[in-house]
């Protein structure tokens, strides 16, 4: 049986364009895959995953017992959403500002220890935001129970006669809900008072702008008119 050797490709033979683009344009080496690497001995198993889950849960419970009674959640401030489209809505923010803590009588260093986070970047740009979060902190302080570190030694800020059997709150969001934001009014009839007061804030601003802009021209026109009337009388 005769065996035919494959003909060598000459320089004039056409080249597969996909192979040409792969060889010329690709900066990587064309690998020959080797799969005889004994991969069975290099597989990492996770048969201990259920046991680790149980261990982590037991560790969390032990840590909670050791820490004692403490806030499970942090009290969040009421802030405005960004951009003009959503700034009529209120949402929970990151932390309270220094001005809000000072107005509520809470020191910054002890705030986080009683479940009140602090945000040093946010600023109060209106009296309304300061008032809302101040009232929120004051309501939280009225419900807060601070146990002394040592039994029988009550310090400033601790609750006298605190009983550790006190019932805790389920969630802070349900106990201290966010105040309602801007409520959009539905269609209604125009009242008689609104009809009597035809001027609006927009028209008042436009009139003030017009008076300021044409004050010089109108003064010159009035002066010229008075001079013409004086000349006619002569």
From TrEMBL:
Gene Ontology biological process: translation
GO CC, one annotated term: cytosolic large ribosomal subunit
Signal peptide segment: none
Top-level taxon: Eukaryota
Keywords, comma-separated and alphabetical: Ribonucleoprotein, Ribosomal protein
Gene Ontology MF term list: RNA binding; structural constituent of ribosome
Pfam families, per database record: Ribosomal_L13e
Listed InterPro entries: Ribosomal_eL13 (IPR001380)
Keyword Acyltransferase: no
Annotated region (Disordered), positions in chain: 213-234
Entry's family note: Belongs to the eukaryotic ribosomal protein eL13 family.
HAMAP family: Ribosomal_eL13 (MF_00499)
Protein name: BZ3500_MvSof-1268-A1-R1_Chr1-2g01425 protein
């Amino acid at each position: 049986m005769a065996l035919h050797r494959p003909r060598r490709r000459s320089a004039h033979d056409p080249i597969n364009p996909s192979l040409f683009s792969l060889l010329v344009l690709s900066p990587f080496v064309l690998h020959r895959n080797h799969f005889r690497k004994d991969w069975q001995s290099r597989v990492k198993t996770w048969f201990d995953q259920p046991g680790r889950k149980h261990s982590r849960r037991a560790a969390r419970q032990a840590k909670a017992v050791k820490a004692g009674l403490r806030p499970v959640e942090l009290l969040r401030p009421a802030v405005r959403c960004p951009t003009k489209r959503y700034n009529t809505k209120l949402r929970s923010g990151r932390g309270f500002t220094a001005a809000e803590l000072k107005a509520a009588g809470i020191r910054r260093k002890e705030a986080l220890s009683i479940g009140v986070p602090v945000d040093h970047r946010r600023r109060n740009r209106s009296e309304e935001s300061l008032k809302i979060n101040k009232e929120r902190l004051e309501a939280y302080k009225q419900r807060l129970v601070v146990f002394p570190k040592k039994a029988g030694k009550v310090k400033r800020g601790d609750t006298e006669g605190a009983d550790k059997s006190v019932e805790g709150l389920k969630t802070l969001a349900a106990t201290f809900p966010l105040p309602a934001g801007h409520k959009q009014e539905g269609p209604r009839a125009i009242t008689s008072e609104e009809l009597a007061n035809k001027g609006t804030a927009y028209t008042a601003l436009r009139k003030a702008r017009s008076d300021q802009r044409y004050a010089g021209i109108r003064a010159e026109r009035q002066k010229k008119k008075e001079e013409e009337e004086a000349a006619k009388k002569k």
